[in-house]
Specification:
70 residues, alpha+beta, three-stranded antiparallel β-sheet, two-stranded antiparallel ribbon, 1 helix, elongated
Length: 70
């Protein structure tokens, strides 16, 4: 596995492999054959930061406003 960041949006398919789900700017852990292909074609670069998990917020949600009572 290799950790990559997508630097160019890839087409939906490369060499018969579905890659359309990879998002520009996101980091992923990708198996060796596909990671080499993405690197060679210029769609990705290697990175050292951990991948972002889906559904994990990086900021705290704002606190809800409380209505003033009379």
């Amino acid at each position: 596995m290799m950790r990559l960041r997508i630097v160019r949006p890839p087409p939906p398919e490369i060499e018969g492999l579905q890659v359309g789900h990879l998002r520009f700017g996101a980091s992923y852990e990708i198996a060796q054959p596909l990671s080499e292909l993405l690197l060679l074609m210029g769609y990705a670069v290697p990175v050292d930061d951990p991948p972002i998990r889906a559904g994990v917020m990086t900021r705290k949600a704002p606190k809800p406003r409380q209505r003033k009572t009379r």
